[in-house]
Design a protein that fits this description.
This protein is an alpha/beta fold. The chain contains 9 helices and 10 strands. The model has no long low-confidence stretch (mean pLDDT 94).
Length: 256
């Protein structure tokens, strides 16, 4: 089996799951063009733990509607992809000796199904989620991606779902123009990603006030580090859905 790419998807609003727009069309294109994965390992901004990582080990994960204030049509979405308990156990093995809790009931949050519904609308590819252990350092998350990279040779699509720039406090959705600092940091991140220069992205606080404003509480940024960690040195990287809307970056990154 050929090596699977790794993807970071700027997921933006949950409404992208059911609206036809440039972003959802690009995700659908990716799903059609990429090699079909045996399974998907998703690291979403919307599952945070502290003290240990957790992995969804349910054979039939439910669809989690972890938001409010959206139309009923979004709450009606059911993404019925199967789980993969064996893959969940494999993830725990790869991250050992660090503890990974096998969560028996955890479903798929909107960071997962919000992008997978346009990409793989048949929901017939097994999906598991790995939580973000916020008790760990930023470098630990990057190194976790490196430790999980062998899954790419086993037919598993490693996917991070978040946003390089994500600052809802600064976002005014009536004015979609991005603040200058958001555009600047998105371009800085892209430049470093293209150069394979990951250390400044891991130690992002050293990138100054643009990074501080853009990354903010960091849960939307950390999934990117898993995908960069899974990159082989010198492996090609490219971007898709590359724009900043208000203070949210929709930029997607494909490794391989």
């Amino acid at each position: 089996m050929s090596r699977m790419p790794a993807l970071f998807v700027g997921h933006g609003s949950p409404m992208n799951a059911i609206e036809e727009n440039a972003w959802s069309r690009d995700w659908a294109r990716l799903g059609a063009e990429l090699p079909r994965p045996k399974a998907i390992l998703m690291v979403s901004a919307h599952w945070e733990t502290r003290g240990a990582s957790a992995v969804s080990a349910s054979a039939a994960p439910e669809t989690i509607h972890d938001f409010f204030g959206f139309p009923q049509a979004l709450f009606d979405v059911r993404y019925g992809a199967p789980g993969d308990p064996a893959l969940a156990a494999r993830v725990a093995d790869l991250l050992a000796p660090d503890t990974v809790v096998q969560h028996p009931t955890r479903g798929l949050d909107h960071g997962a199904w919000g992008v997978l519904a346009p990409m793989y609308p048949q929901a017939d590819i097994p999906v598991i989620q790995l939580s973000l252990d916020r008790g760990q350092s930023d470098r630990w998350h990057y190194e976790a991606g490196r430790r999980l990279a062998p899954l790419r040779d086993e037919g598993v699509l490693i996917m991070g779902s978040g946003d390089i720039v994500h600052n809802l406090r600064a976002a005014d959705f009536r004015r979609p123009e991005a603040p200058p600092w958001a555009d600047r940091f998105n371009e800085t991140a892209k430049r470093l990603i293209l150069a394979g220069d990951h250390d400044p992205l891991i130690d992002w606080r050293g990138l100054g006030s643009d990074a501080e404003a853009s990354i903010n509480s960091a849960e939307h940024y950390l999934p990117l580090l898993y995908v960069l960690g899974a990159q082989t040195p010198g492996e090609p990287v490219s971007f898709f859905t590359d724009d900043v809307f208000a203070a949210i970056s929709m930029t997607g990154v494909q490794v391989g």
